[in-house]
Amino acid sequence: MTSGSVSIRQICKAYGSYQALNGISLDIAAGEFLTLLGPSGSGKTTLLNVIAGFERPDSGSLLVDSAEFITKPPHKRDLGMVFQNYALFPHMDVFANVAYPLKLRKVEAGALKSKVLKALETVHMAHLSGRRINELSGGQRQRVALARAIVFEPKLLLMDEPLSALDKNLREHMQIELKRLHRRLGMTTIYVTHDQQEALTMSDRIAVLDGGRIMQLDSPKNIYDAPNSKFVAGFMGDTRFVAVRGNGSTFLLDGRVLRLAREPQIAGNDAWLMVRPERLRWQGNAEQDNRIEGTVTDVTYLGDSYMVSLELREDTEISIRHTGSETVALPAPGDQLALWMSPEASVVVEGARL
Ligand code: ADP
Ligand code: MG
């Protein structure tokens, strides 16, 4: 697919004195799956509503395939949209719900029927086309909402937390289905979630939002492994931070120089070593790796492993899993322990001290 590229330039939107979007600029390639990820209130829905045309920004421009969209009313933008709460018509059956966008577009009866059935087949709901909406489960309703969004083959699909009302198993199943659907149909997709795991699983790229700004725009792997700030690092995974002293290029942990594979971009003095359980090792090489010492505080049984928590100086806590395959015996509370991180796994980020 060659159409459906989006170019967002310096979009600002205030509600009263509150700046909900603070100069958002973003280019999305045709066919890309881009996720807006951020905490509640960071501006994700506002940005999606600006793209859909439900909100008029105060300034900025929005180009879709090089055409200005800001002044276009929502129904002329031809976008598919899926919301968290489905927004289906409860008094109509499944078929009528999915047919609705085609009726608006005055598609004739024969073509309408085949398009609706095709969309329903795509989401595995063709066998329930005569059911009423209130006779469907949450997962089935979300499939109908999805069929309704794709039935007119929009070049752009917008989804706002479409899976957040579903339970964990169904949500993970639907993530895989959505991803497959995207691969098959190839439409540009802008997906909103506050769930970092969902964003990592589904996206070509992720834009992390906070306070109406894009904090980082990158591949899932870079967002996770090479966060550009303490905020992004802390938003992804089970992350702890250990304060380190530094002068911009050399950083000290417990008086030893940290070995880093990537040079951190740090302007001020507030530097932190990002520590995640899966990046710590039980064994290391004192000549090559970084050593972190602490006192074991808790050993928690998780079924497939144990979580071992350690307290470092300055009330900092970190943890690591013990699967039983380590050559190190399971430690006990009170034990002094040294853990290791390779230079590749050691990332220093900047962020204010709390
Ligand atoms: P998110 O979807 O990331 O949770 P939103 O885009 O819904 O965040 O909201 C961003 C900020 O803008 C929030 O602080 C919210 O309270 C505010 N906001 C959103 N819509 C309105 C509105 N219609 N009037 C006033 N404030 C709003
Ligand atoms: Mg929202």
Briefly summarize what is shown:
By secondary structure, this protein is α+β, with helices and mostly antiparallel strands. It is 24% helix and 32% strand.
Class by SSE composition? alpha+beta
Biggest β-sheet description: 6 strands, mixed
**Structural domain tally:** 2
The radius of gyration is 24 Å
What is the architecture of the largest domain at the second tier of CATH?
Answer: 3-Layer(aba) Sandwich
CATH level 4 superfamily of the largest domain: P-loop containing nucleotide triphosphate hydrolases
Bound small molecules, which ones? adenosine-5'-diphosphate, magnesium ion
The portion of residues assigned to helices is 10-25%
CATH topology of the largest domain: Rossmann fold
What is the average per-residue confidence, as pLDDT, rounded to a whole number?
Answer: 93
Q: What is the CATH C-level name of the largest domain?
A: Alpha Beta
Number of strands: 19
Low-confidence stretches: none
Tally the helices.
Answer: 8
Strand order of the largest sheet: 6-7-8-3-9-10
Approximate strand percentage: 25-35%
In N-to-C order, the SSE pattern is: EEEHEEEHHHEHEHEEHHEEEEEEEEE
**What is the overall silhouette?**
elongated
Spatial gap, N to C terminus: 47 Å
